[in-house]
Amino acid sequence: MTKLRLFALLLAFAPALGFAAGPAVKLESAGTDLSDKASLQRGAGLYMNYCAGCHALSLHRYSRIASDLDLPPELVEQHLMPAQARIGENIHTGINAGDGNAWFGKAPPDLSLTARAKHGGSDWIYTYLKGFYIDEARPMGWNNTVFPGASMPNVFWELQGIQRPVYDQGADGQPHLVRLELASPGRLSPQEFDRVARDISAFLEYVAEPAALKRESIGVWVLLFLAFFTFIAYLLKLEFWRDVH
Fold it and tell me: Which of 4, 139, 141, 202 is the most interior residue, by most CB within 10 Å?
């Protein structure tokens, strides 16, 4: 019975231990700001141009983007939506699962909750977008420092340029990737591409929890109410017990 209880206790703490272990790669700080509407608007445009062809946001609607990001619906319809879509529809991918499996070996995932599902949130996305490098051994010719063996090609290579890995021999005698160097520059400078990665990361952080800012603002008022209620309850306790002693 004691062993069974110990096993159950270990199972209960297993998720927490796994979460504490964290990612193997040091993540860069994205520096996202959900109150920066301009960044979220740029991120929405970049996502629809470079990502939405493969990755769905099926838990989010075009109309919600328009209202939350202060974008006129007609502007969203003209620039952020495919011709056959409607403003009230959810954001679906441009390819089906069968084609995704055939082209990439695995259907591209829905990214609605990626910023919440990944350890590090927007920092993970930001580091991932910046972590692509050329790898002739991979079927698509690309690899990633954050997610080794990723099936996704670097769709931003024209903007970012082509990065090559620099290896160092470790204590185990095996080569270890130590950094990436820019072998061929892209259309953007490194600083400009950092903003691209940051804007997309911010947009996906917003998509994962559209009401995040509202939740945080309500949370402040809830804490103030609880503090006030605690004070009133304390005064009531003093009144009840005043004549007991």
Answer: 202
